[in-house]
Amino acid sequence: MTGPSTSLATMKVASDLPGGRLHDARCRRAGPEAGIATVAPDLDLAEGQSPGPGGRLVAGRYRLRSLLGRGAMGRVWLAEDEVLDRLVALKQLVLSAQASGTTRKAARWRALEEARAAARVDHLGAVRIHDVVKDYGCPWIVMELLSGRTLAEAVDADGPLPVDQAAAVGLALLDVLQTAHRAGIVHRDVKPANVHLCEDGRVVLTDFGVARALDDPAPVPGGELVGSPAYMAPEQLRGGAAGPASDLFSLGATLFAAVESRAPFVKGDVFATLTAVVEDPPAPFRRAGPLRPVIEGLLAKEPEQRFNADEARTALRGIQRDGEYSRWGARNGPVAPSPGFQPAASRDDR
């Protein structure tokens, strides 16, 4: 059997993939516009730094306070909404100074698609989008500011989640994913770095930047293949369309990472990882316990053989009932694994 299509041979990925950390970078097919993204010098800061006294004002309304984080396709800022007097998160889609008009148009399209996709998912477990604006030559997405940290950050800092907590996270994500699928949206990038464990007990799915409508046949502008290699479903890597079952595969990979502290298929380089996703079984289970059959059911190579959402929910609820943490349930969102913090109760259990 051959590995993934050689059309993936030009994909550009971050250099941290061989280390197997949970922050597996988004990959994209590199074209003539590829290169290191740049921003205006006074906005190119290290995480946590302020953009200067008073902060820069975006779109005449949002005052930048500090840089929260950065990724392959942009930066996220802490900002103050001076009209409504509240703190928000601003996602800046960063463009190369040499980007063509076509690339800039594609970036604007991507920002609007991300905002529209998230807005269609009416659920507390989906990040809320307030606005999309343009300033400093690039699009900005105005989002709710989330407390807590991502699942990737939590596992990297504190180690794997207890099985019961991982089951609660899985139930919360199933809930929001089913809401998205009923709204006709496939997320396509479920992974630990896009799962936010909030201090209020919510589990929030973020970064709808590569989400697509199920009824949208149009290709992504620029011909990009986007996703995170170690968490993408085999059918996506084979060039097939992503559907609800693809998100469930990514959920299985995310739950594996939550309890095993590594992605299930990550190898020494991106192409070995892609081949493993398509052909190989996951890495050995060491800590999953009763979660193992659920993860295996979600990681079936063929979509029709994969656990569906109802099967996964039944299995995860059984784990919760049997576990030490079952009294906390899985509202829309359970626990950020930090000292003294525990998940909220399930709506179904009230």
UniProtKB/TrEMBL annotation:
InterPro entries: Kinase-like_dom_sf (IPR011009), Prot_kinase_dom (IPR000719), Protein_kinase_ATP_BS (IPR017441). It is an enzyme of class 2 (transferase). Residues 318-350 are annotated as: Disordered. Residues 62-316 form the Protein kinase domain. SUPFAM superfamilies: Protein kinase-like (PK-like) (SSF56112). GO terms for molecular function: ATP binding; protein serine/threonine kinase activity. Transmembrane segments: none annotated. Coiled coil: none annotated. ATP binds at residue 91. Its EC number is 2.7.11.1. Keywords: ATP-binding, Kinase, Nucleotide-binding, Serine/threonine-protein kinase, Transferase. It holds the Pfam family Pkinase. This is non-specific serine/threonine protein kinase. It comes from Amycolatopsis acidiphila.
